[in-house]
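User: For documentation purposes, I need each entry recorded in a consistent format: the amino acid sequence on its own, followed directly by the corresponding structure tokens. There are two entries in this batch. Please keep commentary to a minimum and don't merge the entries.

Assistant: Recorded as requested. Entry 1:
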Amino acid sequence: MTLASPLARAAYGQREAPVRTARAQEYDLLARCTQKMAMAWARRKEDFPQLATAVTENLQLWCALAVDVADKGNGLPAALRAQLFYLYEFTAGHSRAVLANRASVEVLVDINTAVMRGLRGDGGDL
């Protein structure tokens, strides 16, 4: 066995990670944001900045989704795009209420969970 053989196996023998679809990436981002918000909500009295960070990150994700569905080149049906944009608008307003300590993150978690069910194909119709 030559030195090149182990090097070749190391370079060419490893399998590449599977290509992730945009849908799977969106699901993962929503899942992470949802988990962060739920955990931060449970600790809001001890660590409000953590809650503010989690809610802000969720809003940033929804802003990116809104930009995507507002694009004329987006392939989703127009009605679904409109519903998703409305959810962004609602999420933005509700996030402000959470940050002002006037509302719970519960509805934001519910919205994210419903969208994740839709991305998985589990009947998460909006």
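Entry 2:
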Amino acid sequence: MSTHSLAQNAYGRSSATVRAPRSIEYDLFARTTHRLSHCFADRVANFPAFAAALNENNRLWRTLAVDLSDAGNALPGELRARLFYLYEFTAVHSRKLLKGEGSVDVLVEINTAVMRGLRGQGGAA
């Protein structure tokens, strides 16, 4: 293969669709929330999968919290504070779930509210 062909393959137009960040965030929340619900229902038979789903949800929220803490974040301060509080709540509630206390429903509700906000339907926090 010639250098020109290699360059064209590497730098040529991508057939992948460029997606908006909100769309990507929505999909991450949707996949994570689905997995969390599914694994909670089967937690007795497959606790490691449930723990992994909780970890994935916590990782998503930690990433969001880091972004919220960035001085360049353009969200209004009050919304950033409320979302950061939800990050903290999610972490605490996840620890309770790992001890067998409570239900995953509240985490699903929180994630769903964020997904509505990402879709512009309100209720993000």
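Summary note for entry 2:
The chain has five helices and no strands.
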